[in-house]
Design brief:
- This protein folds into two domains: 77 residues, Orthogonal Bundle (Rna Polymerase Sigma Factor, Chain: A); 91 residues, Arc Repressor Mutant, subunit A.
- By secondary structure, it is mainly α.
- The chain has nine helices and no strands.
- The chain is globular, with a radius of gyration of 18 Å.
């Protein structure tokens, strides 16, 4: 039991953050799913094979439960306001005014941050997960492939498609005004 408590303390932020990003925001559903994930880990602890990193197994269980949740709930493409409320320290720093920039440039930067978050949240579930695992969990493509049950090349391809989708969704921010 002590080992399980330690695992929860060590990984609860990672699991909760992944769940919240995957289902479109923080809240009771994200909390319930995170709890279910740790219960599943507790019950399946004997099945863990040390040939993969524990975090890879943890993210695989997380992925499975989140995808099941999304299928049973029929995930909507609408992105709740809570997506804009959850920010990393880096994003919060990027929102701060920068010396030498005009208020208009600061506002444009804040709008871009919000647009990126909304664009990521509107990606298909697997693309959203690969972006999260790569950018937030800093996993390599081999590890991401194991989490998703695909090859390393498949994970790279999924990331490429996610980036292409993001380019399309964010193209208005990168075209010259006429």
């Amino acid at each position: 039991e002590e080992a399980m408590r330690e695992l929860i303390v060590r990984h609860q932020d990672r699991v909760y953050g992944t769940v919240a990003r995957m289902i479109g925001g923080a809240g009771p559903d994200a909390e319930d799913l995170a709890q279910q994930i740790f219960i599943r880990i507790w019950k399946a602890a004997g099945k863990y094979r040390a040939e993969a990193k524990f975090t890879t197994w943890l993210m695989t269980v997380t992925r499975n439960l989140v995808f099941t949740f999304c299928e049973t709930r029929g995930r909507k493409l609408e992105v709740p306001d809570t997506v804009l409320d959850s920010e990393t320290e880096e994003v919060q720093e990027a929102r701060q005014p920068v010396e030498g920039r005009t208020p208009r440039e600061d506002l444009a930067g804040k709008e871009l941050i919000d647009a990126v978050k909304l664009a990521c949240a509107s990606l298909p579930a697997k693309q959203r997960l690969v972006v999260h695992l790569r950018e937030h969990e800093e996993m390599d493509f081999l590890e991401i492939g194991k989490v998703l049950g695909i090859s390393e090349l498949g994970a790279k391809s999924l990331m490429f498609r996610a980036r292409e989708n993001l380019k399309i969704k964010l193209s208005e921010f990168f075209t010259e005004p006429r």
